[in-house]
Write a structure and sequence with these properties.
Strand content of chain A: 35-45%
Radius of gyration of chain A: 16 Å
Number of helices of chain A: 4
Number of strands of chain A: 8
CATH architecture of chain A: Sandwich
CATH class of chain A: Mainly Beta
Oligomer: homotrimer
Shape of chain A: elongated
CATH topology of chain A: Jelly Rolls
Structural class of chain A: alpha+beta
Order of helices and strands of chain A: EEHEEHHHEEEE
Largest interface: A-B, 29 and 33 residues
Strand order of the largest sheet of chain A: 1-8-3-5-6
CATH superfamily of chain A: YjbQ-like
Largest sheet of chain A: 5 strands, antiparallel
């Protein structure tokens, strides 16, 4: 019998690509559900954050911050900065590219990730933020 | 008891990054299903469109069009343009990057979006198009 | 009655953006499940691969390899290359951008793809690899 369980979580994340590894938190929440086979949707609430997978080690985290600065630079004039004068046009655009949604399967009660594949939430905003995210499990026991 | 409901919709979208806010349409369709907790898959049919979230306001929409033109330029020669001679290689590449699929959770009958986070469908093609998209709800009442 | 069926598959893929069209394989696996309406999650295991949709024809595949080389270049120094000395920092970053997860709906036993829209798995690593991926079907018959 298939069940749906929704959990709301939050984390504190640094500004300008603060990357938080939430893999263990998700595994703990998965254990609490008792579900054995299914999938978890990770969804970050808001328009200046994102979710993806990465090998979570300090050098690669540094690389990610540098490459996204090349692709969608912070120090450039964006029209959006004239809408609210909060200077975070780049944060919004990064979010639209990386997107705020990710679905990961699990089986036998374990996430089907690679050894070096961690799930991360990224705060693209230009100030430290408490970021809310949703975990929604669909599965059977 | 978990249900699955599939709805097909379409919108008319401008060429070269016509961005359409479909959030209200999805909320209406969610209301019709009567489901209270679950998720909606938004999937755009075709290889020159995409779906993501954005703060839907005119200046940021303009920024998105400009930054994607920097990342995957329209005015550049693509091999694909020699396959069908329809000059939309850039449209396809933009679609592969932004992707045609997004999953958004809902609870108590409401999408769990941030206040400034809207769901948008983007037409990357080089002419105005009617774009078909699928809404698939999985949830319980 | 909603069912969940998880299948593990693997493919051999060339290095540096080896792109494999897995659409037919997914259709075959869908047929085996007997499910008529629902969705399939495609998830690539590992931190140097990705999954998306593309019009799978040789010229566009070439374009994809060239544009991603412009966006996240191979021949550039990455901090990650000093962590393991395997020179694949670019592979990881490409994976974090394209992401390892995609959800596609089906109805009447058929994937709701466009005519020119194929599902592909991409090996971003710098050597030929056997790549594992998960197909997880949620649906009803």
């Amino acid at each position: 019998m298939v069940k749906i369980i929704t959990v709301e979580k939050s984390i504190s994340a640094e500004k300008d690509c603060g990357i938080v590894n939430v893999t263990e938190t998700i595994e703990e929440e998965l254990n609490k559900t008792g579900l054995r086979e299914g999938q978890v949707l990770i969804f970050t609430v808001g328009s200046t954050s994102g979710v993806s997978t990465i090998e979570y080690e300090p050098n690669l985290v540094k690389d990610f911050k540098e490459i996204i600065e090349d692709i969608i630079p912070k120090n450039r004039s964006y029209h959006h900065d004239y809408t609210w004068h909060d200077a975070n046009g780049f944060s919004h655009l990064r979010s639209t590219f990386i997107k705020t949604s990710l679905v990961v399967p699990f089986k036998e009660g374990r996430l089907l990730l690679g050894t070096w594949q961690q799930i991360v939430i990224i705060n693209f905003d230009n100030h430290r933020r408490q970021r809310r995210y949703i975990l929604q499990f669909i599965g059977k026991d």
